[in-house]
Amino acid sequence: MIPMGPWGPCSLSEDGMRNRRASAATGTCGASMASRRRSFMDQERIAICIEACNECAEACEYCADACLDEDDVEALVECVRLDRDCADLCRLLAALLARGSAFSQSIAGACAEACDACATECDEHEMEHCRACAEACRDCADECRRMMETESPRSRGVATHA
Question: How would CATH label the architecture of 50-149?
Answer without folding.
Answer: Up-down Bundle (1.20)
